[in-house]
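Students often ask why we bother encoding 3D structure as a string. The short answer is that it lets us treat folding as translation between two languages. Here is a chain of 542 residues written in the first language.
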Amino acid sequence: MKRTTRGRRRRPFLILAAIAAVTAPLIGCSAPAPASTLGTGAAVGPVPNGDLQKFYAQKLEWGPCAGFAPSIDDKATFAESKYDCTYLQVPLDYAQPNGKTAQIAVLRQKASAPNQKIGSLLVNPGGPGASGTESVTSVSKVAGDGPLAQRFDLVGFDPRGVGASKPAIHCFTPAERDADRADDEADNTPEGVAKLEQKAKDYDAKCEQRSGRDLLANVGTRDVVRDMDVLRSALGDAKLTYLGYSYGTRLGYSYAEAYPQNVRAMVLDGALDPDQNLIDRSVAQSAGFQQAFDAFAKSCASQPACPLGQDPAAATENFKKLVLPLIKNPFPQPDGRKLSYSDAMTGIIQALYSQQLWQPLQLGLQELADRRLLTDRPTGLIMLLADLYQGRQADGSYQYTLDAFTAIGCVDDKPVTDPAVTLEADKRARAAAPFRDDGRGPQPARDPCAFWPVPNTSEPHLPTAKGLPPVVVVSGTGDPATPYQAGVNLAKALSARLLTVEGNQHTVALQGASPCVDDAVTKYFTDLTLPPDTARCAVSAG
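And here it is in the second language, the structure alphabet:
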């Protein structure tokens, strides 16, 4: 069974910018990274006794961010003088605070009205494996010089093992990732299943060899929430103000469960259902993407050039006529690569995260229908969307977001080790999302987590956070990756205020997609004013 699709990639406007500037040159150079000093600052708020005190009391030394950019596309933004960066030191293993340390990359935009400053607003984009330093720069653009930018230091961090944090999770080389994407083999014979599972075991071995067993054992949510509390203190905040998207909601509610007394305000947008097991989550997500595909098909059908035709009821079958031939005949791209069926579905899923990406998706499907449209383009739009999801950059290198996604997911959930359970889960997922059914039958091959070299450190459960102040959960009715009911369930578990958003988009807050949501979230963060009970907003059209 495949792991569930990552809860969050890049914001839609960042993807659109990348599509417009796919050949952007590399610029900028790295500066020496600033280093924090353990035990020389002032610990703030509740601080544990013993050897962890020095981490809570560390003094952060801030400097330029050029060397922290997680991708080529981010270099110009990270070079802007309004941002500064540092590394937070934390124990690699909290059970051994005097042992090895990890360096957590942190980016900050200082409050523009320091005399009115409330504190820091900590942002995490989810994934798991996505860069929080990258994410906070996009939140900064939406915030402008409004109340949030005036009254908060906007702070993003790359969780341990992710992005610019050190050590980083690293499994595949760029060439190995390219080869893996091009290999679209799916053989359900015993020999074929054994071959697929051996590939999973080989991948695990590379992860252990290149990342280190001690890192893999300590990259889960359990450890990141402890890093967040160290960061809270090092930033000088007695209490945490936090915005978490998608998997970042798991970080949020797990922090709330561990440190309810340390929370000032928390917005959890695009929630993971805290009590849902991996299989049920995967099936619910498949249904969510089918809902998003159907909405896209209906919108496309209203346009004369829709490659899926003018009858939404026939869209799934017409879609399969375009993509299933890629299984045996991958689509040649202008850059010499070939678009496999697997890559095509990855790019299409990327576009279904937000209705703002429906136009590039429609154009990409038109390219499949008529390859002459690829003339004068460095790569096709669906391949480009797949590259963005996979973290492939213009020079052929990769961000290691997918490696981090796997490593974190494997310790955050109990692995599925029974092939019969894997087979049944794949049957359910195919039934929930017919547009994703490749016609080759359900697959019993187990994924890398079934053979992962270290045990899981967390399992889904309903959080208990006695004493937690009122928090806000934002959930979209058409969210494909984290369906609406998950937000309802999380809000109930935390006794939180639920803000419902009408629209086909995965996460909304502070993305410029809904002024209604942005206003509600801003008022809550600045004044602790909750949205009205049963409040509803909508995603803006276009």
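Translate back mentally: The first strand starts at residue 83 and ends at 91. Keep this in mind for the problem set.
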